[in-house]
Amino acid sequence: MKKWGLSDRHFYRQVLFLAAPIALQSLITIGVNMLDTIMVGSLGESELSATSLANQFITIYHIFCMGIGMGASVLVSRYWGMREKEPERAAEALRKTICIMLRVTLGLALLFALTTLIIPNIVMSMYTPEDSIITLGTVYFRYSVATYFFLGLSLVCTIVLRSVGQVKLPLVVSMGAFAVNLGANYAFIFGKLGMPRLGVAGAALGTLIARIFETGIICGYLLFKDDRIGFRLKHLKMKTGDLLGEYVRISIPVLISDGILAIGNNAVTMVIGRLGVTFVAANAITSVTQQMSTVLIQGVSQAGAIVTGQTLGRGDKEMAMEQGYGFLGLGVALGMMSAIFIMVVSDPIIRSYKVSPETAAVARQLMSAISLIIVFQATNSIMTKGVLRGGGDTKMLMLADNIFLWVLSIPLGILAGLVLRLPAFWIYMCLKSENVAKTFWCIFRLRSGKWIKKISVGNLVNRSETPERTD
Q1: Alpha-carbon distance 11 to 314, whole Å?
Q2: pLDDT, tens digit, 9 for 90 and up, residues 80-103
Q3: What is the spatial distance between Cα 244 and Cα 232, in angstroms, rounded to a whole number?
Q4: 3-state secondary structure (DSSP) of residue 322
Q5: How far apart are CA 338 and CA 345, in angstroms?
Q6: Rounded distance between C-alpha atoms, residue 107 and residue 190, angstroms
Q7: In whole angstroms, what is the distance from residue 39 CA to residue 24 CA?
Q8: With contact defined as beta carbons under 8 Å apart, do 334 and 382 qualify?
Q9: Among 84, 186, 365, 408, which is most exposed with the fewest C-beta within 10 angstroms?
Q10: pTM (2 decimals)?
Q11: At 446, which helix (H) or strand (E)?
Q12: Which helix (H) or strand (E) holds 327?
């Protein structure tokens, strides 16, 4: 019982304190996306398609920023845990990490902004050959150029604040951004409240205004108000050469891993797109249900990285191992709860859509498959994106994530769907089979202890940890 963390009430309180606001913030994000879809969808199918496809490109940037932020979070959590033993050195390393993170984010934002400013037609033509949709997408991009800077800064700064235990402010700001986005979309898409009717451009402008609001408060707090980290504008000029190698070693594998996984998930989507309209429509019905069932899992995953990093920062390897087993048990439990949720709500959700009996039947098969896969997905997500990442095992995770996806799931999905033409249940099981294999790999990796890596603060090394082993 002790090994699985089941007797440690403080552990659960700490996880709940971190995970609940993160999960609620993810739920708000899902709500914003649904709101945008509904509002733009009322303009017509071409407008909806244009904004949806343009946002596919913006989503790539979003995923890269998540990789930048979560990679930096591994270091920030570890240094935050070190602050009692080496307060000055740990604080300096923490600020240098944030400085590097912000520089990388701004550089990436500039690259994406220039791309959508200079060659928006080429970007849109990668997604569709329809001239009308390309034209509307170009308009959307024109009003979204500045969004990259605000989106990136607010996202990575939010992740940093969470890493030092500040989870309430980002949640409150997200609620405010939701309200701002709703009002701005209503005003600029439909020409209400004395504003011009801009249609697709109004949707992009509404999102930009909401991002400016969000960034202004989050970054304003971090740069001028926060006294935990003590990062200020002047620190953007600080020299970071002595920590750059450590940042690259820990953070860049996270960025690469998340980026390649995004490409891999697009490949899965391409396989689904070639299985016919019925399968695509059924998958669209089930995707929102799956997203809603995993918001708490995502929260616990990020909490796992923060808690593990802080524990190892204090040099307590034994406690980190114990907490790792606790998170493993939480993953199984949350996966089973999500499976029950999906089984209960699947029929009412399917019936709420006006689709053919064939599509409804396929959707039921997919729901059944998801309810099984979600148990494994929850477990390995909490371990890979949480505990193992928090331990600094980012290079091995980069390899494991992509090997299981590209060597197992995608080939099996192509074989099951395009060659053998198996029923929808088995196609989906094959497409998501990496979750099963990765779960067992995570258990072996956790038991080995090799996931606990040493992390240096310039010339200072957290020496109470196990020396890094060769994998």
Answers
A1: 15
A2: 877 777 777 778 888 888 999 999
A3: 19
A4: helix
A5: 11
A6: 35
A7: 23
A8: yes
A9: 84
A10: 0.74
A11: helix 434-448
A12: helix 317-351
